């Protein structure tokens, strides 16, 4: 990921395309009944979106954009604040970001509290 953050060959549009392709693959896999997890694909999508945001607004450090994007996407997929915070902290190992991530997580978690999980409904024939 560090090589992608400092790469000058990929722009914001390339990272956006990468995130859309990964999101499409996740939705197709979930809709077709793939029994795999959704956490790590959400982390990869979050990393691509975070790098896109950093490429779009270069004054914001990549560590902040990537960790916040991962935190948000894992929170949307799992509805688990602790897991989201852990994943964002592990991917970007900067303990100085922990207070910022806690502040960012609170309103997002409050918006998602009580909402149903990301799941595909199956209709019996």
TrEMBL record:
Annotated membrane topology: Multi-pass membrane protein
Gene Ontology cellular-component terms listed: membrane
Keywords assigned by UniProt, alphabetized: Ion transport, Membrane, Transmembrane, Transmembrane helix, Transport
Keyword Transport assigned: yes
Gene Ontology molecular function: chloride transmembrane transporter activity
Transmembrane intervals: 12-31, 37-53, 60-77, 97-118
Top-level taxon: Bacteria
Broad class of where this protein is predominantly found: membrane
Localization per record: Membrane
Cross-referenced Pfam families: Voltage_CLC
Name under which the protein is recorded: Chloride channel protein
Gene source species: Salmonella enterica subsp. arizonae
Lineage: Bacteria, Pseudomonadati, Pseudomonadota, Gammaproteobacteria, Enterobacterales
């Amino acid at each position: 990921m560090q090589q992608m953050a400092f790469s000058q060959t990929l722009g914001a549009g390339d990272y956006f395309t990468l995130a859309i392709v990964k999101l499409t693959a996740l939705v197709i896999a979930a809709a077709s009944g793939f029994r795999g997890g959704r956490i790590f694909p959400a982390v990869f999508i979050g990393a691509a979106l975070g790098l896109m945001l950093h490429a779009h607004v270069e004054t914001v450090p990549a560590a902040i954009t990537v960790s916040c994007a991962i935190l948000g996407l894992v929170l949307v997929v799992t509805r688990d604040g602790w897991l989201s915070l852990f994943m964002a902290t592990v991917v970007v190992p900067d303990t100085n970001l922990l207070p910022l991530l806690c502040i960012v997580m609170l309103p997002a978690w409050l918006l998602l509290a009580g909402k149903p999980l990301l799941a595909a409904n199956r209709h019996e024939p």
